[in-house]
Amino acid sequence: MMKIFNNIKFKVGIVALVLALGFVSCESELDKQPVTELTEGQAFADPEAYTEFLARVYAGFAVSGQEGPAGRPDIQGIDEGFSNYLRQFWKHQELNTDEAIIAWNDGTIHDLHNHVWTPANEFIRAMYDRIYFQIGIANQFLRETTDAKLDGRGVEGNLRAEIQVFKAEARFLRALSYWHAIDFYGNIPWVTEEDPVGNFFPEQVDRAVVFDWIISELKAIEPTMVGARQNQYGRADQGAAWMLLSKMYLNSQVYTGVDRASEAMEYIEKVINAGYSLTDNYTDLFIADNNTNGSQNEIVFAIQFDGLNTTGYGGTTFLTHAAIGGKMVASDYGVSSGWGGIRTTKNFVQKFDSGVDTDALNEAIGPASKWGLVGSATENGWDGPDMTMYESGAEQYGIYAQLVAGEIKFRFD
User: Fold this and answer.
1) Tens of pLDDT along 175-213?
2) Which of 65, 135, 213, 303 is most buried, judging by how many CB atoms fall within 10 Å of its CB?
3) DSSP-derived secondary structure letter, 332
4) What is the pLDDT of residue 309?
């Protein structure tokens, strides 16, 4: 039976036991339970705990802490609103390109666009911490679902079979974060459920080693995962595993020095042949009902956000509000306000044809005149030639022109 993750609060805690050694004790003292909010035995007495724990692993990509929109953050060292996984991931993918800039002066955020990479950058550290927080909770889920643990709790039948699917999904989510780690940071610390809980120095390994491990993990879990497009919306399935495998192989030249594009194509074809279809309206992919409006047939793997259960200052809240500014009307985009933060660069815009035939528009104004437009904002700069203006009436002149930031002046020839 498929488990539904909606509106579930995470109750499972990681229990740390401290043994205090003393000279005097008695049996009643030794029999006491640890002073914790919830012990392992209590937590997993409820079969729903496994569903709730896995839901928390998924939620780590969407929420920033134990309360929403802020409070009890998952990681430290940065404003919680900034720390959201998807918000950090977007910034690290986009702000270092010509596609996006950010207007705010938050800490070292502009260093991303300027390609200044230092350990002092709190955003680079926050992405790193987010990735390893996700890896950590996925590891803990796998520690709590070993055969020995399940045997000890008497878990069997349908629940035990379902937990095997849960474990495959947790391994996928861990592999996804490890991909982000080697993509952003290269050689990285490597920890799995086999490593101890607590303070220790994990092994630092080459990104090629982690690359091979991710490939092997995804192939190992593929048979256990739910078929492509058959799982609950927002949960990983075989289609998601195939897509991640294709991305790994596509970037193999970068990660390992070996071109494996043909293997990328093998898994891309699996995705293509799994029954996905493009939505008719591209913008439908980015609105709140994209789980029911037909977009779900195009989306391979979604991180779920909504205004009730995943409140915060990251994810789609950030991407929507931060992009609205200037003369944009927030209500046109379905929100109450804009943050005036992110936008694209002029260099990026200039890569695309505007689709406007300025020659035809100018000819429609009237005959060419001896007046012209010149300056650093024009396509020819101050050296000219001047852009011809057109006479629309007695002593009236106009021009349609594509300009950039700079200076202009009108000049009579």
Assistant:
1) 999 999 999 999 999 999 999 888 889 999 999 999 999
2) 135
3) G
4) 85
400, two tokens: 């349609």
Q: Quote the DSSP letter at residue 73.
A: B
Distance CA 373, CA 217 (A): 62
Can you tell me the distance from the alpha carbon of 382 to that of 407, in angstroms, rounded to the nearest whole number?
A: 9
Instruction: Give the DSSP H/E element, type plus range, for residue 204.
Output: strand 203-205
Distance CA 337, CA 250 (A): 40
362-375 pLDDT tens trace: 999 999 999 999 99
pLDDT digits over 299-330, tens only? Answer: 999 999 988 888 999 999 999 999 999 889 99
Closest alpha carbon to 141 in 254, 40, 242: 40
Residue 19 has pLDDT above 60, yes or no: no
Report phi then psi at 88, rounded to 5. Answer: -65, -40
204 phi, psi to nearest 5 deg? -90, 120
CA distance 246 to 267: 5
Dihedral, 22, 26, 31, 36 alpha carbons, nearest 10: -40
Residue scoring higher pLDDT (122 or 393): 122
Which DSSP state fits 82? G
Short-list 208, 214, 216, CA closest to 254: 208
Closest by CA to 310, choosing from 142, 61, 110, is 61
Question: Which of the residue ranges 27-41, 264-278, 383-397 has the most confident prediction, judged by mean pLDDT?
Answer: 264-278
Judge whether 322 and 343 are in contact, CB under 8 Å.
no
105 three-state secondary structure: coil
**Which H helix or E strand runs over 216?**
helix 207-221
The span from the CA of 238 to the CA of 304, in Å, is: 18
pLDDT (tens digit per residue) in 255-311: 999 999 999 999 999 999 999 999 999 989 988 899 999 999 999 999 999 888 889
Pair of tokens at residue 187: 């050689």
Rounded Cα distance between 322 and 286, Å, is 15
Q: How far is CA 45 from CA 49, 145, 153, in A?
A: 8, 13, 8
**CA distances in angstroms from 291 to 79, 295, 296, listed in the order given:** 30, 6, 5
Query: Could you tell me the two tokens for 136?
Result: 């950590």
Please give the full DSSP string across 279-306, using - where no structure is assigned: -SSGGGGGSTTTTTSSGGGT-SS-----
